[in-house]
Request: fold
Amino acid sequence: MEYLGYITLTIFIVTMVLTLFKKIDLPVQTVLVLVSIVCLIVGAIFRFTTEGFNSAILLPNEMIGGIILHPITALLAGLFLAGALDATHGFDALKVIINKLKKSPIGLAGTVVILINLPVIASLPCGRIIAAALLPLLFSFGYEGGMGILTKTQLIVLIAAFTRNAMGSCGPSPIGGVGQIGEGFLGAFFPTASDGILRAPQAFALIIGTALTALFIKIISQKLYPDDVALSDKPENQEEDEKEALPEIKAPFRGYLSLIIFVASLLTAIFQPFGKAMPVQTMLVAGGILIILLCQAKIQDLMNGIILLPVTAMASGFMAAGALAATGGFDALGVILKSLSTVQILGVAGMLAIFVQMQTILPLSCSRILTAALVPVLYLFGPAKYNLVTWPQLAIVMAAYMINATTSCGPSPLGGGGTMGEGQMRAESGFIKGAYTYSSMAIMAPLAAIYMKFMNFTVFSPSNPDFSQNIITIILYTFVIIAISIGMMSLVSRMVSNNDTKNWRLQLIYFLISGGIAGAVLGFSVYELQYIEIVQGFIGGVFAAFLIGVMVPKALSVVRKTA
Amino acid sequence: MLTILSFLFAGALSGVIIAYAMDMKTPKELLQGAVGGLIAGFLMAMMLPR
Reply:
């Protein structure tokens, strides 16, 4: 059985890496289904020869048993409701509100900040929904889009930051969000974990991480890839009145009504005023039915809202995870990582610092694929099996892992969500990769860990005297992390030259130092002031940052020619 | 309450950084960015479990 686990784990990892490097030219979901079938066949043969026919025949049952239905049905219900909103012009109503906000005292600056953070506020189960609805609106702010109120640089930053926020918003979503996969496991210690124990750390990390992404795009990415965004600025000699007049944004009454029903359903799903007896899915479907009745939407419209990618990604991820679990693949991975933690230079802290960055190292089109496979492994590190960390320590690591995982679809070259932003800003593929991976690795993962430790435990375990909220510490650490990042960012920006290789090496060094700091912060969050663990976290973080940094393209035009 | 405060802080800070990154660097624009961030942070915090 032990050997079988190593065999199936090898099959899984090798096929995932080959898919990432486009050596296997198939959709990742197809690859996962094929991997599951191959693992099952190998497992069945292995069991038949070692344990007999009865053991082999049970294998498919064990695999299917690993599929968790709750996040899948919540995701379907969320997409169903979002489809209703889209079909009844609810997003048009949102655009009208944004347009009015622009003319209010908060001005353009305040409006774009709200707009950029709208995906996390809306909490949809997949960032692609809101990105598809609002990216064309953002594009219209530029010269080519007609309004001409933002320059090319401003528009690039706006679109990149908005897409970053969107491709991470599925994590803290209470309606089928990725984080729910981890919350289920933490429920073993925190009884109310499924109410959203991972949501606040993720949202906190995202709001800061989005801002740092904007800054990275502005002062580094645009210098590294100056000719790789095809957007244009308004010609200097163009008269103001030559600007093409855009039709006024309007929305029908049913658009406003569907938006109100949508918000009400979302709030009811989040706060559960009817208690646990009324599941999230019921509230969302009820909202969908109300929209059908009151806003004249058709069932077909609602079905159109269901984006298959995240659903199939989650289902195929669970299938592969089930196959790995049934054949001992997770046990093998657990043993490998546990033995990694015995290497003195890494220890448990260093191994965890690498583990939390795993999905940014291997970014797939939807984070749910690997999350479904890797969260059970992380769970095994806790008191449930290997006892490497306590329950609260596991929750801290889970928060860091989850935000890193959920934002990994952004920089994925396999049709990740970030490609939507790149397409909208007419950028070469890979333009956002550095900024997105940097913010996930160096900003969001450590901030989520810090937030979980110093703010979130008391919400879910109020009677435990070991937990307390310390907002001063949160503010202090956020300032320190931001100050170090911005300081190094501006230093790198000043040192950028015309030499692509030199620039790439410079960026890699920046990643290594930032990754090390992120690992050290994680080490501190988990072990407090134990210096050996903090150093081990730093070393693990450097190792992970190396694997992430080497994947950032040197020059985008080269990527285009060789693709 | 502290959760809301932490998100107001994160929102305001994020708003200022975004406004700066978008070349909106006058005190008025930075303040508007901070207010936008405060609103975003508040809305996010209100959606969280307490």
Observations:
- The radius of gyration of chain B is 11 Å.
- Residues 27 and 33 of chain B are 10 Å apart (CA to CA).
